[in-house]
């Protein structure tokens, strides 16, 4: 023992390094063990769904998974195959995986949609936006309006695998463990609880419309946030550095535009999910004959109410147009999107401090901003305007656009606990 103590004392640097290495290795192994336990528990829960008896005449439910292999710095495929795929297969779903870089024709996507019971998007915010864009483009080109309505009712599951997963904060409980977050999201798809989410249709003058479930940003905070990754070598200071160096440009940074908007619209009642059964043939014939022989109703001229557009000239450091998906209220009686016009009188210090908050919650509306609730708006930019929009964290060229709210357009699977919290908060 004396000899060992002497050796440790004479080689204390190596001893310290060895202890640190063993501690790190032990902690890493323990973390892997805990992740395996989470996977095993999730698979056992999924197995319970797979063991449920179904009639022999009922086909298996088909799920189409859109996987973005490039998400999470190329780790998304491995994360999906280790944490989500086993759960989906054990549950008894007939799973088809489609990579988002698939170059097939739109017709192939439509064939998949016509034979699927649910859609699963595995990736980040950009993946959600990309998948909705591809499917909507295919619908516009090849589907009737009736078929589009059917597509909008297909429930969508979201498995968060990307760097930014804004939707996961709405749909699933917060978790610091990535494996637990992914398995919770996958199990939520099996449990079947859904919530309706709004969609923004953003249309330029000539291009096809772009669809967003989070929103649009235009301004200095967005421009600085895009450059944060360039300062990776500064570690935790990279966000402040990006915003600090952004202030070296012309200051104050003003973005000028003209905004026209319509106010909120009244929410119609929920349509019943199951349509009433069709009446027998003889009843339908009788109704048609009665309608034919009855006297034609008098046409009552309907007055067309002109749309009451509000117009506003704005000068702002940042403009944000966002859905209410991050603050879902399942019982609200009006449909609207939030327009936030931030003051352009921000000091450089406030800009740097507020930039960190904007990275965590991009569509937050700071105190002193002008907040507008609208169902539709038109953003006109001065000629020669440069820069970019951020639409669901994807970059698009800044141009005049019309933004239209499509309320409750899509149904996303969510954790039952989150849905219960939403209903409880609405009651209070």
From TrEMBL:
Its main location: mitochondrion. This is Acylglycerol kinase, mitochondrial. Residues 58-206 form the DAGKc domain. One of its GO terms (biological process) is glycerolipid metabolic process. It catalyses: 1-(5Z,8Z,11Z,14Z-eicosatetraenoyl)-sn-glycerol + ATP = 1-(5Z,8Z,11Z,14Z-eicosatetraenoyl)-sn-glycero-3-phosphate + ADP + H(+); 2-(5Z,8Z,11Z,14Z-eicosatetraenoyl)-glycerol + ATP = 2-(5Z,8Z,11Z,14Z-eicosatetraenoyl)-sn-glycero-3-phosphate + ADP + H(+); 1-hexadecanoyl-sn-glycerol + ATP = 1-hexadecanoyl-sn-glycero-3-phosphate + ADP + H(+); 1,2-di-(9Z-octadecenoyl)-sn-glycerol + ATP = 1,2-di-(9Z-octadecenoyl)-sn-glycero-3-phosphate + ADP + H(+). It is found in: Mitochondrion inner membrane; Mitochondrion intermembrane space. It holds the Pfam family DAGK_cat. It is an enzyme of class 2 (transferase). The keyword Cell division does not apply. Belongs to the AGK family. GO terms for molecular function: acylglycerol kinase activity; ATP binding; ATP-dependent diacylglycerol kinase activity; ceramide kinase activity. Its EC number is 2.7.1.107, 2.7.1.138, 2.7.1.94. Gene3D superfamilies: Probable inorganic polyphosphate/atp-NAD kinase, domain 1. Keywords: ATP-binding, Kinase, Lipid metabolism, Membrane, Mitochondrion, Mitochondrion inner membrane, Nucleotide-binding, Transferase. It is a peripheral membrane protein. GO terms for cellular component: mitochondrial inner membrane; mitochondrial intermembrane space. The keyword ATP-binding applies. Pathway: Lipid metabolism; glycerolipid metabolism.
